[in-house]
TrEMBL record, chain A:
SUPFAM superfamilies: Xylose isomerase-like. It holds the Pfam family MbnB_TglH_ChrH. NCBIfam families: PRK05409.1. InterPro entries: MbnB/TglH/ChrH, Xyl_isomerase-like_sf. This is DUF692 domain-containing protein.
């Protein structure tokens, strides 16, 4: 398994630029690629061939969509075993998903749904994380989602994450854009969220663009360049928690690979310059 | 060894169930919209002919019913197509031609991503197998113009992915069907004497023509090596 340095920069692997990536042995400024295991595992044909060739050239990080760690149904252990096989086959050390649910008692809903952040739910979630870590033989890394619904009387998100890490030993994938979107939409303090997180548990960062609706509501679309306000929060994140591998997410309106790489390089440079100023 | 499962706190289960019920029933809330948009995007990508044929109003109605009622068991997003097909197949009022088109597009998708490895044809092979990605379907329409509709007559076709990752739809003749049935029964058959048991039904020339065409397009291929990936794709059709 290949490890990533704190200064590593990555992109989510998209079908739009797989062929371009495969035209050269390795692209400068791109240190790793993130794949959604659900989109690549147990399939053959052209996609399998592409992934095999990509994996020969770049370290991969797995970022799942359907683990549904926080739903209230029994864990889908068959699915988890398939995930574990995929991680082993491609020598993937980091397996992340979201602190959310994707399923109710009827079935899968194919989205990242928020669950109530209450102290009494933490032991249940920690038990489930332990099961996942047991089956995959890896530390589970969980991302903070953009949540468009609040349950009444919830714990602050940062405190909830910190307590979950303490109970389960899971890692954190800190999505800086999601932190900003939640703070704007719900009138909470993004800085307080960042300060509540245990630095040592943060494994890597996501950064992305969002869409602002006419009424000011923000939607996490991964379809636009990173907003200045999110970059400012990224500076604050680096100052608080230090450098980690950084991944730029772009899933809609995907530009050409060279444009994405230029964006990624500019973001990393800006953050690095800001870090020196803050230091 | 996995740890024992614990049940969710009752209040958590009730709160989350209430939230999901609202998202399933109400398409105007943000999560209701997101669920419907995700499914619509997946269906348009997986079933371009079907979604184009039924139009946006009927598609919206089908998605609404799917989200409100369907117990999807497959977590992978690319299986939204599989789940939707299963849902439509179970509806008592689904028009037959729409289901046929949906099944055809699903078979194309399934062959494209089938986990099986397709060995390239070889001039020196001693044994012959049916391409492991093959789906056999009866089509009433011309696959070159599926949206033009059918004539009510079922015609056998094979849908498969060749060793170059191309997905092909091949109309089948009687000799094709005989060879396919023979290979399916045996999994792999020696080339020598292949026609011996089939010649009462077809001439050797007809069988040889079928075999040559099948080898060229990839319908027939060498048997997979024992170490190659087993066939794992769902098969709802």
């Amino acid at each position: 398994m290949r490890t990533l340095t704190a200064g590593a920069r990555g992109l989510g692997l998209r079908p739009e630029f797989v062929d371009t990536l495969l035209e050269s042995p390795a692209v400068k400024g791109l240190d790793f690629l993130e794949v959604a295991p659900e989109n690549w595992m147990q399939i053959g044909g052209r996609k399998r061939d592409q992934l095999d060739r990509i994996a020969d050239r770049y370290p991969l990080v797995a970022h799942g969509l359907s683990l549904s760690i926080a739903d209230t149904e029994p864990l889908n252990t068959a699915f988890l075993r398939d995930i574990a096989r995929f991680l082993d086959d491609y020598g993937i050390a980091i397996y992340s998903d979201h602190l959310s649910a994707a399923r109710d008692s009827t079935g899968y809903l194919y989205d990242l749904l928020p669950v109530p952040r209450r102290a009494e739910n933490l032991p249940y979630l920690a038990d489930r994380i332990a099961q996942v870590q047991d089956i995959t033989s890896r530390r589970l890394v969980l991302e903070n989602i953009s949540a468009y619904h609040l349950y009444s009387g919830e714990m602050p998100e940062g405190a909830f994450f910190a307590e979950l890490v303490a109970r389960s030993g899971c890692g954190i994938l800190l999505d800086i854009n999601n932190a900003y979107v939640n703070a704007r939409n719900h009138g909470t303090d993004a800085s307080a969220f960042l300060r509540a997180l245990p630095s040592e548990a943060i494994v890597y960062y996501h950064i992305a663009g969002h869409l602002e609706l006419a009424d000011g509501f923000l939607v996490d679309t991964h379809g636009a360049p990173v907003a200045d306000a999110v970059m400012a929060l990224a500076h604050e994140t680096w100052a608080l928690h230090g450098a980690r591998p950084l991944l730029l997410e772009r899933d809609n309106n995907v530009p050409a690979l060279d444009v994405l790489l230029a964006d990624l390089g500019a973001i990393a440079t800006t953050i690095d310059e800001g870090r020196h100023v803050l230091a | 060894m996995s740890l024992p499962e614990t049940a969710a706190p009752r209040a958590m289960a009730m709160e989350f169930a209430s939230f999901c019920r609202a998202a399933r029933k109400n398409g105007s809330g943000i999560y209701g919209q997101l669920l419907r948009e995700n499914v619509a995007d997946a269906l348009r990508a997986s079933f371009p002919l079907f979604t184009g044929l039924i139009g946006s109003a009927a598609l919206d109605a089908a998605i609404e019913a799917f989200i409100q009622r369907h117990p999807a068991t497959r977590p992978q997003f690319h299986h939204i197509a599989t789940e939707f097909l299963l849902f439509v197949q179970r509806q008592p009022v689904s028009p037959r031609e729409q289901i046929a088109l949906l099944e055809y597009e699903w078979a194309l998708l399934a062959a494209e991503i089938d986990a099986a490895s397709v060995p390239p044809a070889s001039t020196e092979m001693e044994r012959l197998a049916l391409n492991p990605t093959t789906r056999l379907v009866l089509l009433q329409f011309d696959p070159a113009q599926p949206a033009a509709g059918g004539d009510g007559v079922d015609r056998p076709h094979a849908i498969f992915r060749n060793a170059n990752h191309q997905v092909l739809t091949l109309p089948l003749t009687l000799p094709d069907c005989l060879l396919i049935e023979h290979l399916r029964a045996k999994e792999a058959a020696p080339l020598a004497g292949l026609f011996d048991t089939l010649t009462p039904c077809c001439s050797t020339v007809e069988l040889q023509t079928s075999l040559t065409r099948g080898l060229i397009c990839g319908l027939f291929c060498p048997p997979p090596r024992p170490s190659e990936t087993p066939h794992e794709t769902d098969r709802p059709c």
